[in-house]
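Hello again,

I reread your note about wanting to compare the complex against the isolated chains. To keep things tidy I'm splitting this into two emails, and this first one only covers the full assembly. Below are the input lines as submitted, including protein chains and any nucleic acid or small-molecule components. They are followed by the predicted structure of everything together. The single-chain runs will come separately.
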Amino acid sequence: MVNFLLRRVYLLCITALILTVIAFSLEHWTVHTQIEGNILTHYLDYLVSIGQGDFGLSITNNEPIFRTGLVAFASTLELCLFAFLIASVIGIPLGVFAGLERNNGLDYTIMSIALIGLALPVFWVAIIFTVLPNAIGWMMPIDGNISPLFEVPVVTGFLFIDSLLVTEQYQFDAFINHMAHIILPSSVLAIFLISEIIRLTRHAITMVMKSNYIKAALTKGLTRRQIVFRHVLKNALPPIIYQLRLQISTIISFSMAIEIVFSYQGAGMWLFASIQQEDYLVLPSAILIISGFILIKSILIDLLLVIISPIKRKSLYADQ
Amino acid sequence: MRYIPIYFSLFLLSACYQTESTMTDSLIYCAAKAPKSFNPQISHDVATLDATTHQLYNRLVKVDPISQRFSADIASHWEVNDAKTEYTFYLRKDINFHHTAYFKPSRQLNADDIIFSFKRMLSQDHPFYSINNAINNELYNRPFSGLVGDIIKIDQYTLRFLLNKPNATLLANLAAHYAVIHSQEYGQQLLLAGHPEKIDYSPIGTGPYQFKSITNNRVIRYQAHRTPWQAPANINNLIFDITPNSSKRYAKLLSGECDIMTNPASSQVDQISKNPKVALSSKPTGNISLIALNSKKAPFNDVAIRHALSEAIDLKTILSAVFFETAMSTQNLLPDHSWAYNPRISKATYTPQESLVELKKNHFDFSRTIRILAPAKNSIFNPNFYKTAELIQANWAEIGVKSVIVLLNATELNQVLSHGDYDIYLTGKNPYIKDPDNLFRPLLSCNASPLEGNTSQWCDAQVQSLLDTTLLEVNFIQRVKNYYQLQEYIQAQRIYQPIAHMLRFDVFNKYISNLQVNSLTGINFQFVKKGNVINKEETQ
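Full-complex prediction:
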């Protein structure tokens, strides 16, 4: 286990080092003002300061970039998680049905819907979603994370949690308002995710349904319902999680595009506004924060897989 | 499967969502831009005026929105001496400054605050004279700084303005957006703390709303003045939600996320005016889009050619193709709501064939190429300079006049304007104060350079004398007569060809009432009332 972790951390360090070189190059070419010393000493100074969490101050509001970036990224993560929740609730059952009824009418219908979801450009769907609620007379907010009426202090950066911390002042109004604001952008993101989850689930279910232990269960006389809930779902989950891991960076990119359309105050809007205001120091910091998260996340997902899947556990002992 | 109930309960929970517009003590105004600062003395853009002048501050005098006369604000009344060179103002004694988290006033407003505020524009010895580049605002403040010699404190609540010479525009200057009153005590506190720059970004005034916070240059929060000296505001929380995209502003207005929005897209105006749920307020502004004809250079140094070529331009088409419905066609430099507006001046009509005859009669050189100069960047005066220039070019081509369009950025433009190397120039002018002199002088005075506004390079003794005598004239009827005469002269000489006066649009939900919009000083939320949305919908 220790060896497994060490190997992962080793890989993480190398990747992080390459990322810092990219970030430093960006910083060096855009806003770097240090004259004394050579480029190597500048790079080492840069490493020391980011190691201390000092990414510099924003030129627009004089606030530490690292903190602003983390808060913005927390909003993006919240959006992704909420979209993921919606997508799982809709996508997994549909994928299961499609997998169980493979090559049937239901399968074709579900897969056609999934294909349409994949084919639609996210930014276009987002724009449609900003117009749609009004067109059908559904009063849904289309701009921002929460109404400016609510002054929610930043504690965790996750607005769902922060809005619950101010219930004394606003009861649950701020929480509900944030919920209403997140529904449309997360639904757009969920369209892409649902298509992906349906495809992955269908494939995983088909593979599991072909395995011998399912045939054995059938001969044992178990009902279809028992087989699906007891054996199929449990065994189909690890490959789905493993595949979704690869999609996380795509999901974050999509969510950043969606944020700009909905003016949702996350990492996408933060970067967009910084570029507009020529606050270029934000760019290298954003690269480090976002890619750092993706690196750490991949290790955590590997660990999760190891915990829930006995087959994956083999990789723990691969060095022996 | 077990998550399905959770998901649906979340959706049901969001059904509890009430639109923001149901909260009657809060008002959300969807603005297009963030203000540059919170002091209209140093920032003169519409966004700053909207966010500051009427909300945060008061002036010595103001313009009554109904009678359009000067009325008391901080000054209860005023007197003028016989020579018309001294104005004595008597201040109200009950005016409180804002009491905020960053400033707790120990006294009420007195003459020191007035002197402190005005001296920032007048005296280089003032500690705030050069703070936040206030010094660069000379162009805007010149009408004021040029006419006042000194301000003397008579007692705590009386002060006297000493003018360099008699000038009828003092009251108009004191009612202008830049004549707002700050707290001297707050200024001293900031100097002691070593942060004088905060005076323009964490403002303290006496207006109906006090500043609370600004977040990410996106949300500005105000709350009603805690100890108001005027009628208290009906709205407790005033919020400016900066939404740069006009379609989104309109969508937010419809979904109840905004109560009032400004500046709808010109293409949306027609649709908005048909929507029964919202009201559209359109106010003509003093901003005028015009064509300057370079009178120093042939062929436009000839009045007959100026007439002929300007009457070969189809202004109606320009208005509908470039401005849509966001501007009002005009023949006059002054807007029709100005007290000096002359409705009887002769009208220029689109008569290309008569123009052609006139050009031939005056031996116009048809082989000559006329240079149409325009800024590369569109501005509040014209949503599309290039299209306007193209239409003029096409009109002239029909009668055989050749022209070339030159679009330049600001730096190059200034050089060309200084050298006078152009034939016509597409431009505009926005007056800052409610006095015609503020519009006419930069456009026509011999002392005004092209960079200051005199892009026709006009200079003649008759206009100059009319401008100067009218400025000194104290008889109101005579001033009106003089300006009537001036407008007739401008039209006869065709010094400028006005295209249109720009309109300012604000859209608000029907439950909003008493919204006041002043085209020169900005929007005023002091008297705004917000009805109960739900009750209104039920009764309909």
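For quick reference: Chain A has two domains: 1-53+280-320, 66-277.

B.
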